[in-house]
Amino acid sequence: MPCCVNKTEAYDMDEDSSQDPSVPAVETLYFRDGVRRIDFVLAYNDTDADKKVNRRTMFENNLKKEGVELEYEERHRKKKDKLKFVKIHCPWEVLISYAEVMSMKMPLAMNDLEDETTNCWSKCPTPFDLDEEYLPPVPDYFTAAFSRNRLDKFIVENKETFFSSAQRGLIAYQVLSRCTYEEASDKRKRKFGIKNLINSGVYQAAYPLHEGEYLSSHSLLTRGKSNDRHLLYETWAKPSRWYKYQPLDHIRTYFGEKIGIYFAWLGYYTALLLPAALIGLAVFIYGCVRLFDDTVGKEICDENGVGNFTMCPLCDVRCTYWKLKKSCTYSRATYIFDNEATVFFAGFMALWATFFHEMWKRKQAEIEYDWDVADFEQEENIRPEYEAQVSTTKKNPINQIEEPHVRFAQRICRFASSFITVVFMLCLVVAAAFGVIVYRVTVAAIFYSVDQEEISARANLITTITAAIINLIIIVILSWVYLQIATFLTNFEMPRTETEWEDSFTFKMFLFQFINHYSSIFYIAFFKGRFIGRPGAYNRQINFTRQEECDPAGCLIELCIQLGIVMVGKQSFNNFKEIILPKVMNWFKSRNVRKEEKQTLPRWEDDYNLAQMNKLGLFDEYLEMVIQFGFVTIFVSAFPLAPLFALLNNVIEVRLDAYKFVTQWRRPLAVRGQDIGIWFGILRGISTIAVMSNACIIGFTTEFIPKLVYVYGYSSNQTLTGYVDFSLSTFNVSQFEPESLPANNKSDVFGVVTNCRYRDFRSSELNKYNLQFWHVLTARLAFVIAFILLVFFLSWLIAYMVPDIPKGVKLQVLREKYLAKEAIMESESVRRRKERANSQPDEGSVNY
C-alpha cells in the first residue's frame, strides 16, 4: 500500500466534483486518488434549509483547519432525497496528535514472556478450536501510551498500518466530537460536536466504513480472506460456526474493546451455563422418573381415599365445594420441581454464581492487560457534552489544569431531583404489577363461577397464563416509557465521563427493569395465598374481595408457568427485535435496488443502507443477559430448567449478535472500555438476592420443609403416608360469612356439606393455629437461616481461594512497566547527549 501523499500533491478536497455514477469505484475504501483511506463518512441532505447549510459549512471548514481532509460524493443511485456524502481522512499528523491526547496504547516491543496458562489440555485439538491456517493469532506486544516525542521507540513498520482502521475511526470521531459549528462570544457557549448536528438534522448519519462485503465468491480455504469483515463472517458470524470458539482478538481489532469485552463476557457466561444446565436437566429428569412414586400425589389422585375430601370454595358465593382429586394433575406436575433434588440444585446454583463472578474477574484481568485497557477509566477523557453544559471550572489536582467542574450543591440538587423522579416511576411500575394482581383476583372469580365444569376446573391455570401474557405486554410498554425518562435524567445529572454516564443510566434502567420483570414472579413466590385469612374470616383488603389462593398442591407450578412465559417470551421478542427487524428495515431501504446495481454501490452508500446500532450501544444486549441471569439464579429452585433454556438461547444469541454486527448494522464506533462496568456489581447483587430468594422459596413456597417435619415428627413409620390429611385443616361450614357462603350448599354429588377442608395448619374447633403450624414455621425459619449462612460462607471461601488476577498477568504487567521505563530513560539519555553536544564549542573556533 503506498504511503500518504502530501497535501499539495493530494486531490483538491474543496472541489465538489462528484464521481460519475455510471462508473463503479475501483476501491471505495479510499479517496478517489486511491491513496488516502476513508476514516469516517458523513451523510447529509442537499435540500436542507439555510441555517443547516451554514452550520454544516462552518463545521466542515473547521475540520479542514484541524488538518482533516474532505472529499464529497453524490448518491450513486439517484433518488429524490438528494443525499450526499462527505468522506473524511485523517493525515498522519492528525492521527499521532490525537493518539497522544487519547493516551492510546501502541506497540512497544514483542511480548517475550511465555504464556503460563497453556497446559496439556489446552494443546489437545478439539472440534471447537478455530483453524489458525486462515485465522492466525493476533501478534502480542508490550505497549505504552503513545507519545510523539518517543515515536522512534514504537514499532512503526508502516505509517498506513500503524493505526488500525478501528483506531483511525475512533480518532476521526474524536475530531468530529470536538469541532465547533457555531461560534459565540462566550467560549463556553459555543456549539460543537457531530452528535448535536445529527440530532438537529444537519447530518443524516455519521459512521466508519466496513472493510468490504462480508460475502465472497471464494472460501477462506482456497484464497484466504477478502477483508476483515469477510474473515469475521466466515469464522464467527456464519450460523454454521455456532459451535466454534469466538475469535475475540479479531473482534476487538475490528469492533473495538467495548464490543469485544461484551462478546468475551457473553461467551464465558454461556460456557459456564453448560454444567448448570446439565445438572438442572438431571434434576428435572429425576422428578419425572419419580413422578408416579410420589406418595402425596398418589393420595390426592385416589378417588376412594384422600382425593374424595370435600374442599372449601375458592371464591365467594359463585364457587361451590369441590373434590381434592381435581388437583391431581397439579400435584403431579408440582412434584417434578418440588422434590429433594431441588434443594441441592438451589445450593449448587448459588455457589455456581459466585464461581462465575470470581472466574470472570480473572478472565477480565487477562483481557484488560492483553487489550491495553487496564487504566482506561483513570485516563478517560471528559465528555464533550459535559464541557458544553458546565460553565464553572476547577483546577485538576493531578495535572494542575483548569477543567469544567460542577459544584457540590448543584450536583446534590440534580441528584435529588433525579432520585425523586426515579422513585415515582418505580412506584408506577409497582402500581402496574398491583393492577395485574387485581386482574388475577377478578378473572379467577369469574372463571370459577362459570357453569361449565371444564372451564371452572382450569380457572387457576387460565388466569395464570393470561395474567403472564398481560404482564409481558406491560413490561414491553413500560420499558420504552422509562427508557426516555432515564435518558433525560442521566443527561440532567451531567456525568463527567462516558463511563459515569453509562453507569448512572444503567443503574436507573436496571432498577426499573428489575421490578418490571420480577414483580409478578415475586408476588406468586412469596405473597400469593399467604395472607388470605381463613374460611369464616377472609382478608378482603384488596378490591373488597377475597385474595387468590394457591392450589392444595402449592403455588410452585404457577411460578413455573409465569417464569416460562416471561423468560421465553421476552427472549423471543428480543431476538425478533435484534435480527428480524433490522433485516426488514434493510430490505425496505434497498427494496428497489437491483442485485447488479447493489454490487456497484460504493462502500459508503452501501453501509448507509444498513441499520444503525442502537444509540444506547450495548445496553440492551447486557440488560437482556442480566435479566436472564436473574431468572437463572433467583428462581432456579422453582424452575430447574431455566439454565438449560438460557444456554440454548445464548448459543443462538452469540451468533445472532455476531450476524447482526457483521451483516445487518453499520460498523459501530470502536469505543474503548475497561470492563463490563456497573453490570458486574449488578450481577453480584443479583447473586446475593438469589441466595435469599431460593432459601425462602424452598422454605416457604415449596412443601419440602412441611414434609420433613411430618416425616420426622409426626409420621409413625417415617413416610409421607397421611401427609395430605396432616396439611389440610377442617372448617365447619355453618361458620361461613354471609358473603362467602356458596349459593349451592347442596348437591347430588356432595349431599349436605357440614365440613370442608382447606390448606392450613389450624384447629377445627377454634380455627386458630395449632402446634403443627408452629413446628413447621420454626423449621422453615431454621432452614432459611442455615441455608443462607452456609451458602454465604462457601461463597466467601471460593472468593478467598481464587485470586482476582492470574500470576502470569501480574508478571507481564511488571515486564511491560519495566520496558516502558527503559524506553523513557533511554529517550532521556539521548536528549541529554544531544544537549551536551550542542553546548560544546566547535573545534575550529578560536577565542580572542
From TrEMBL:
Residue ranges the record marks as coiled coil: none
Tree of life domain: Eukaryota
Keyword Ribonucleoprotein set for record: no
InterPro entries assigned to the protein according to its UniProt record, in alphabetical order: Anoct_dimer, Anoctamin, Anoctamin_TM
Subcellular location: Cell membrane; Membrane
Presence of keyword Chloroplast: no
A molecular function (GO) term: protein dimerization activity
Transmembrane segments: 262-286, 341-360, 415-441, 461-485, 505-526, 625-648, 676-700, 781-802
Record domain Anoctamin transmembrane: where: 251-816
Gene Ontology CC: one annotated term: plasma membrane
Membrane topology summary: Multi-pass membrane protein
UniProt keyword annotations, A-Z: Cell membrane, Glycoprotein, Membrane, Transmembrane, Transmembrane helix
Protein name: Anoctamin
Species whose genome carries this gene: Patella caerulea
